[in-house]
Amino acid sequence: MRIGILSRRPYLYSTRRLKEAAEKRGHDVRVVDYLRCYMNITAHKPEVFFRGEPLRFDTIIPRIGASRTFYGTAVVRQFEMMGIFPANESQAIARSRDKLRCLQLLARAGVGLPVSGFAHYTKDIDDIINMVGGAPLVVKLLEGTQGIGVVLAETKKAAQSVIAAFRELDANLLVQEYIKEAGGTDIRALVVGGRVVAAMQRSAAPGDFRANLHRGGTAARARLTPEERSIARRAAKIMGLNVAGVDMLRSNHGPVVIEVNSSPGLEGIEAASGVDVAGKIVEFLEENALRGKTRDRGHE
Fold it and tell me: Is residue 128 part of a domain?
């Protein structure tokens, strides 16, 4: 197959591993900077061009950065118009990137979540704080990634100050209950084609509560419970994602989902689990990448 990897940085671990895994299986692979792609939007012969030449792929693997979601998903959507099968479809990527929409869809389907509040008017701050059980609580910027824009407010006064400051900057944010019993750890389950293929437990760096590896956290192989596996698969399906990193906390009332990632990094989870995740993604494409088979499987 001719496989296109849409990535801005070919030297990143995840991009390199996907390319290596595909080439090892005899596929023709090309890494393309999706921001350098441009499109001919027409009903009869839609095309995607890169540096003056039309791109011809059988399937694509989108690795769209969070800050480039709008243009990146437009490129993926154009390939879909051409009948090219993507590892993740444009609508599913956009759906998962909208953190508020993601939580609302998961909640509607009955998936366990931290108690979360969202408001626009600053005079509603106290009600939102009480809604999530009071301090300590977590404040999250909706546009934040990799633990950036996530603040633990340990007192009500601190929570009021942080929320007011973010709203003064016209930033959209979520207020969530703090799952103290998680102890600065979370679980990431990597779902490919409706199956959990790998899992890791991430632990926060000393003095931090965020378990992101980009924030200095550490990772180890995790053994998931049947309930955690089921929730991870359901969360990916609700988002319509074929490839997803589902992040969960272990709370006193069961596992709760905190995020569903459409471009999960592979370095930490491959090292912690010992699983060839890149190979699993390529295998999924080999089995499913039939031309014209694009079809969004999410709920909205």
Answer: yes
143 and 234 within one domain: no
**Domain count within the chain:** 3
pLDDT higher at 238 or 299? 238
Residues 190 and 124 in one domain: no
Q: Concatenated DSSP letters for 160-192?
A: HHHHHHHHHTT--EEEEE--GGGTTEEEEEEEE
Percent of the chain with pLDDT over 70: 91
Can you tell me the distance from the alpha carbon of 283 to that of 211, in angstroms, rounded to the nearest whole number? 30
The token pair that represents 161 in the structure block: 């100050």
- In this predicted model, what pLDDT tens digit does every residue of 90-129 receive, in sequence order? 999 999 999 899 999 999 999 999 999 887 776 788 898 9
What's the pLDDT at 182? 84
How far CA 61 is from CA of 7, 71, 178, in Å, comes to: 9, 15, 35
Beta carbons of 282 and 288 less than 8 angstroms apart: no
Q: Which helix (H) or strand (E) holds 117?
A: strand 116-117
- Beta-carbon contacts of residue 221 (< 8 Å; ≥ 6 apart): 199, 200, 201, 272, 273, 274
